């Protein structure tokens, strides 16, 4: 059919030409595409191999690990190392695995995320929409906080927490995480709210909405992307934190990352690589899941919030 | 006519930048006042001050006899319509209309009545359950007007409400706003940079420049008797022709031309003398048989022809300057044609050379 039309189009002047003319541009294996996909492939492998090694090793028994073929798939799949990492591995004298510390991390992360986002979003909203005297100075000081190295503040914070009686407790760590999240989150929210049309805010004021009315009923419902970004940043940041966890909590309240370190660095006995790998994957599972679930929203939110200064 | 909005000695500055200086303005009950000016003249700033969205530096604002200088926007008895519509995207049209009323804790049956009335007036009843994203530009602006309407306020503030619409829709909605004003009889303050909107809608126009009102008058007065060269140039499209010369013994001399000024209505009783500028609107230039009866005639050659359908604009040279004239759209003229044009000085405007004020 198509051939007939083409033949007709070529043969006679009476024939009507239809559709695009000329050969279709070839998309397949051009030199450019080979370079592009080749590079992408190499980078993908580079990042995927460590993960592959970890998963494979965690599914092997110790005798198989000792054979030293780290890239070989397991001859006999066993979930024993995972069970051990979760429930039996020893951190120092305590041999109850990571499970308890997992819940510690949950108890640290959830309140810290909620508290820091709640405060920072209102901060950002006030700085963007209710310009008070000295708002710019306040904002500059707050942003400056993002550039002070944590190490400078470690010891003073220990003393402060001790004085208010929160040192070594989960709530103390929650407080520290919330405070340290403040500069970057406030910046994020302020920039996002600044990018929303100002007339919307004005219209809401004319409609009689006050400070909280505008925030809860007009701006917050439009700000899902930026709340998602803030949540991802905070969940991964706080979950992955090691330094504050080890400094500000007592051994019973250690977060999962600190417990992982203790398991992996236990010096007596045999190095159980398979258990270590399983424990590490378990610890990384929460941020990993968050990224997979909300990656798209994350990118959109970052693009919306971070560009304008 | 009682006063609806009264602005007394209003100052507004952002830091060291003075945007409005000692501004006074009285707006009558039911009046349609247009604030007109080029961008940066302070017209939107003034509107925001009236709405209470900007804190004034000094001076007072009274609405319906109450001093509202420091009142919240919602307590001033105003409704505002914005250029970008500013509809709440996550609420339905109905939610948008009722947001202000719900904030004021109005009983539900009363809210329903208000919404019904506003929706009828603006013909947006079928849209009530939709989100703003599902509306066209014109529909959105209708909803935005409705949001001001349901609040049953005395004063409507419009901040360039039609600037985001395409030309045809703009003309349609302009007529609707005028009808709305006739039927409601509210005071309306309308900011625009579009002189056609200003001329068609306004009872009075306030022309602003550099934070000051330079002329406050009816559209007729502003068009026919602009107070200075800026206003004369700003109002009217195509814009006024200006020729520099001097006045001697009731004649305006430019180059070799002597234009008689008998019939011109001077601001002062004594006709002035000396350097001046004459301004003649292209549409006041007459041709053909009308030109024969005009007090001043001159033969010119056509330099450029711009047909617009209804009119034809021609460019000619008068006393060495480009000069535009409007002819009937049916006129058959071509480049290089010679014709006689007539000017009636009683319809012209004379300005002082240095102060540029009307003579």
What can you tell me about this protein's structure?
The complex is a heterodimer of chains A (about 300) and B (about 350). Chain A is mostly helical and about 300 residues long. Chain A has two domains: about 1-45, no CATH class; about 100-305, MetI-like (MetI-like fold, Orthogonal Bundle), CATH 1.10.3720. Chain A is built from 14 helices and no strands. Chain B is α+β, with helices and mostly antiparallel strands and about 350 residues long. The two termini of chain B are about 30 Å apart. Chain B folds into two domains: about 5-235, 3-Layer(aba) Sandwich (Rossmann fold), CATH 3.40.50; about 240-350, OB fold (Dihydrolipoamide Acetyltransferase, E2P) (Beta Barrel), CATH 2.40.50.140. In chain B, about 40% of the residues are buried. The interface of A and B includes residues 204 and 213 of A.
Annotated CATH topology of the largest domain in chain A: MetI-like fold
Largest sheet of chain A: none
Helix and strand element order of chain B: EEEHEEEHHHEHEHEEHHEEEEEHEEEEE
Query: End-to-end span of chain B in angstroms?
Result: 31 Å
Distance between the termini of chain A: 59 Å
CATH architecture descriptor name of the largest domain in chain B: 3-Layer(aba) Sandwich
> Ranges of chain B with pLDDT <50 over ≥5 residues?
none
Percent of residues in helices of chain A comes to: over 70%
Uncertain stretches of 5 or more adjacent residues of chain A: 305-309
Number of strands of chain B: 20
Number of strands of chain A: 0
- Which two chains touch over the largest interface? A-B, 16 and 27 residues
Q: What's the number of structural domains of chain A?
A: 2
**Helix-residue proportion of chain B:** 25-40%
* Relative strand content of chain B: 35-45%
Quickly give the CATH architecture of the largest domain in chain A.
Orthogonal Bundle
Shape of chain B: elongated
| CATH class membership of the largest domain in chain A | Mainly Alpha
CATH superfamily of the largest domain in chain A: MetI-like
Instruction: Work out the helix count of chain B.
Output: 9
The radius of gyration over CA of chain A amounts to 28 Å
């Amino acid at each position: 059919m198509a051939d007939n039309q083409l033949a007709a189009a070529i043969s006679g002047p009476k024939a009507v030409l239809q559709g695009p003319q000329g050969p279709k541009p070839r998309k397949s294996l051009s030199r450019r595409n080979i370079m592009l996909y080749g590079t992408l492939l190499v980078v993908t492998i580079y990042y995927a191999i460590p993960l592959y090694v970890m998963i494979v090793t965690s599914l092997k028994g110790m005798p198989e690990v000792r054979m030293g073929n780290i890239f070989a798939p397991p001859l006999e799949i066993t979930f024993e190392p995972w069970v051990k990492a979760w429930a039996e591995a020893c951190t120092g004298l305590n041999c109850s695995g990571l499970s308890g510390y997992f819940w510690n991390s949950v108890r640290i992360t959830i309140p810290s995320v909620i508290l820091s986002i709640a405060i920072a979003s209102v901060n950002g909203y006030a700085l963007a929409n209710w310009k008070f005297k000295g708002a710019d100075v306040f904002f500059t000081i707050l942003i400056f906080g993002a550039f002070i190295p944590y190490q400078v503040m470690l010891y003073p914070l220990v003393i402060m927490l001790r004085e208010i009686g929160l040192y070594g407790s989960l709530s103390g760590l929650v407080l520290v995480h919330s405070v340290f999240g403040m500069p970057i989150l406030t910046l994020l929210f302020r920039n996002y709210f600044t990018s929303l049309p100002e007339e919307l805010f004005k219209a809401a004021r004319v409609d009689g909405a006050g400070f909280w009315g505008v925030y809860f009923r007009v701006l917050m419902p439009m700000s899902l992307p930026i709340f998602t970004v803030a949540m991802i940043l905070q969940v991964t940041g706080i979950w992955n934190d090691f330094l504050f966890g080890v400094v500000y909590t007592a051994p019973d309240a250690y977060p999962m990352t600190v417990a992982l370190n203790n398991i992996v660095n236990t010096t007596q006995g045999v190095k159980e690589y398979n258990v270590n790998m399983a424990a590490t994957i378990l610890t990384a599972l929460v941020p990993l899941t968050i990224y997979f679930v909300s990656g798209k929203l994350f990118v959109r939110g970052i693009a919306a919030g971070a560009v304008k200064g | 006519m009682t006063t609806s909005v009264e602005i007394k000695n209003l100052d507004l500055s952002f830091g060291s930048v003075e945007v409005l200086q000692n501004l006074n303005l009285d707006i009558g009950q039911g009046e349609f006042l247009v604030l007109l000016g080029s961008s940066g003249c302070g017209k939107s700033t003034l509107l925001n001050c009236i709405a209470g969205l900007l804190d004034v530096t000094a001076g007072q604002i009274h609405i319906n006899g109450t001093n509202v200088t420091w009142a919240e926007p919602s307590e001033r008895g105003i409704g505002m319509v914005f250029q970008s519509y500013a509809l709440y995207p996550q609420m339905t049209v109905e939610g948008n209309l009722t947001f202000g009323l719900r904030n004021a804790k109005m009983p539900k049956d009363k809210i329903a009545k208000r919404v019904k009335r506003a929706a009828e007036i603006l013909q947006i009843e079928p849209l009530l359950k939709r989100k703003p994203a599902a509306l066209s530009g014109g529909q959105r602006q209708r909803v935005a007007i409705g949001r001001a309407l349901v609040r049953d306020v005395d004063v409507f503030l419009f901040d360039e409400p039609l600037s985001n619409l395409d030309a045809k829709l703009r003309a349609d909605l302009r007529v609707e706003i005028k009808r709305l004003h006739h039927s409601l009889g509210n005071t309306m303050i309308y900011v625009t940079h579009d002189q056609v909107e200003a001329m068609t809608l306004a009872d009075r126009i306030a022309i602003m420049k550099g934070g000051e009102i330079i002329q406050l008058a009816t559209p007729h007065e502003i068009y026919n008797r602009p107070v200075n060269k800026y206003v004369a140039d700003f109002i009217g499209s195509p814009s006024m022709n200006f020729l520099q010369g001097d006045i001697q013994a009731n004649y305006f001399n430019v180059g070799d031309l002597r234009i008689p000024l008998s019939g011109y209505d001077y601001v002062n009783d004594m006709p002035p003398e000396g350097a001046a500028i004459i301004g003649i609107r292209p549409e006041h230039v007459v041709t053909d048989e009308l030109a024969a009866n005009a007090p001043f005639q001159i033969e010119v050659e056509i330099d450029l022809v711009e047909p617009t359908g209804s009119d034809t604009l021609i460019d000619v040279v008068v006393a060495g300057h480009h000069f535009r004239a409007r002819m009937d759209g049916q006129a058959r003229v071509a480049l290089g044609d010679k014709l006689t044009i007539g000017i009636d000085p009683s319809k012209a405007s004379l300005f002082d050379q240095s102060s540029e004020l009307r003579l």
